[in-house]
Design a protein that fits this description.
This protein is of the alpha/beta class. The chain has helices at residues 3-22, 50-62, 76-81, 96-99, 127-130, 142-150, 163-171, 182-189, 208-211, 224-240, 242-247; strands at 26-31, 40-41, 47-48, 66-71, 87-88, 103-104, 113-118, 134-138, 156-160, 177-181, 198-203, 218-219. A hairpin with a 5-residue loop joins strand 2 (40-41) and strand 3 (47-48).
């Protein structure tokens, strides 16, 4: 092999490595429990839902292959930091506290927080309304932080690993309220299980410092190139009409919010 041939081969190998790196699989981390309508497993064990559909079109826009890694909600940020996956894509709110640890994409949806209670209970979300009651909240969520600031002196908190567990306790009267993001809570109320047992108590007063500035993808702070690609893809998907097309399959409103 002469020197010129060796140089050409080395250059070709470098280009091949570069191409592979540019199209490496992007691993999306989601919570390993159903969170309809955003994500849940179908009968075959495949992840489906609005957030999964959105992941797929964002990946197509980036021209990247993508996969899903699932784990417990409170393991998502540690899992990201230990490089078990590349992006948290699991209805995680963008908050100042979380931004101390990880970076976020631009928001891809937004939802207020609300309380649901027993059917026939008097609506209301003020401190006076919840006084003496027990509120069910998923652990390590923004709603748990909100409870500590606004409700801790008046009501009791019961934490759960998943919202489903909280819904079950609400349905049988073990707790008085469930506090969480409005879309999954309303989906529960309209489900076969939730009909007749539970009703909407109303949205809580907003506090962006705690409740965040919408839902975004979480990344390691050093992954600036991937962050830029994701932001560009999210904007393109929304501008192209694909965002609205997917959303109409799940909602009768625009989940992007204000």
């Amino acid at each position: 092999m002469n020197v010129k041939t060796a140089i050409y081969l080395a250059a070709g190998a470098a280009l091949l490595v570069s191409a592979v790196a540019a199209h490496a699989e992007v691993r999306f981390g989601i919570m390993n429990e159903a969170y309809p309508p955003f994500f849940a497993k179908d009968a075959s064990g495949k992840w489906v839902g609005w957030e999964v559909d959105m992941m797929n079109v964002v990946c197509a826009e980036m021209k990247e292959s993508c996969s899903i890694v699932d784990m417990s909600w409170d393991g998502l940020i540690p899992g990201l930091q230990s490089k078990k996956f590349d992006v948290i894509w699991s209805s995680m709110s963008i908050t100042d506290e979380r931004e101390k640890t990880i970076a976020f994409t631009d928001k891809y949806y937004n939802t207020p927080s609300k309380l649901i209670g027993a059917e026939g209970a008097k609506p209301g979300t003020t401190v006076a309304d919840v006084s003496g009651k027990t509120i069910g909240i998923q652990v390590s969520t923004i709603q748990s932080d909100y409870y500590k600031k606004y409700y801790a002196g008046a009501a009791s908190e019961k934490t759960y690993a998943t919202l489903d567990e909280a819904f079950q306790d609400l349905a049988v009267g073990r707790i008085d309220y469930v506090f969480g993001d409005s879309i999954p809570l309303m989906a529960f109320i309209h489900s076969d299980f939730g009909k007749g047992c539970c009703s909407d108590m109303g949205n809580v007063k907003d506090d962006p410092a705690i409740l965040g500035r919408g839902i975004g993808g979480g990344l390691r702070k050093e992954d600036t190139e991937l962050l830029a690609k994701l932001n560009s893809a999210i904007a393109a998907v929304r501008a192209s009409g694909k965002y609205a097309e997917i959303s109409k399959k799940y909602f009768d409103f625009d989940p992007y919010g204000e």
